[in-house]
Amino acid sequence: MGDATTHSRSKSSGGQTIRPEEAAHFGQLARDWWDPKGSSAMLHKLNPVRLGFLRAAIDRHWGGDAASRKPLAGKSALDVGCGAGLLCEPLARLGAEVTGVDAAPENIAAAAVHAEGGGLDIRYMAGEIGTLDIGQFDLVTAMEVVEHVADKPAFLAALAARLAPGGLMVLSTPNRTPASRLLMIGAAEGFGLIPKGTHHWDDFITPEELGELLAEAGLEMGEPTGIAFSPSKGLHLSSDLSLNYLVTARRN
């Protein structure tokens, strides 16, 4: 194993992966999660970029029609660390039978209300993914979550256990680089673009470390794709991995 766990703060005991203070932090943001100008504004800007990567990965993995409006029809999807459903709802619109799991009950409540208002049938559950008996899923996603968990190997093993044979996993997370420390924490949190206390740079994980941990969980990681920022393009997919990156994973 690499030094992924060396850089994390403290592990929880008893196989728990969620730090109570992390759940509480995001629970406090639940009320305006769906406000594109609120505390989750950056996630609203990030979501279309993630969805572009995700849609392409889905089409490649299952050999689907890129023009299809419901490429996940007949498939099940699990979003872990779902917040108030910012990714769950597009997955449902892509045809999937969606389950969202989050550590903060406040987020689950906000997600359920928003989905009902949009006429979407999404199952939401609060709790630890490793302790929930919810079966396996064709698609498993965890976007901007790995950096918030205490025990990364246990968390990734729990995700792997939820992935059905022939399934696809998609993860996104910040990279641990000087650039991410400067821009994502120093600038973004310093100027209020992201709520203060959202990120802890020591918990960020490099692509190499993530690949090793996924391999230990029996998964093979695909080539990472970066999420970069420029004044002209805004947030966009890039070969630059220095800030944030997305990966696919599947069983070996």
UniProtKB/TrEMBL annotation:
Biased composition range(s): Polar residues: 1-16
Encoding gene (name): ubiG
Pfam families xrefs: Methyltransf_23
Keywords (A to Z) from UniProt: Methyltransferase, S-adenosyl-L-methionine, Transferase, Ubiquinone biosynthesis
Protein name, as recorded: Ubiquinone biosynthesis O-methyltransferase
Annotated InterPro entries: Fumarate_lyase_CS (IPR020557), SAM-dependent_MTases_sf (IPR029063), UbiG_MeTrfase (IPR010233)
NCBIfam families found in the cross-reference section: UbiG (TIGR01983)
Catalytic activity: a 3-(all-trans-polyprenyl)benzene-1,2-diol + S-adenosyl-L-methionine = a 2-methoxy-6-(all-trans-polyprenyl)phenol + S-adenosyl-L-homocysteine + H(+); a 3-demethylubiquinol + S-adenosyl-L-methionine = a ubiquinol + S-adenosyl-L-homocysteine + H(+)
Pathway entry: Cofactor biosynthesis; ubiquinone biosynthesis
Region (Disordered): 1-22
BP terms from Gene Ontology: methylation
Top-level taxonomic group: Bacteria
Molecular function per GO: 2-polyprenyl-6-hydroxyphenol methylase activity; 3-demethylubiquinol 3-O-methyltransferase activity; lyase activity; polyprenyldihydroxybenzoate methyltransferase activity
Gene3D superfamilies the record matches: Vaccinia Virus protein VP39 (3.40.50.150)
Positions of S-adenosyl-L-methionine binding: 50, 81, 102, 143
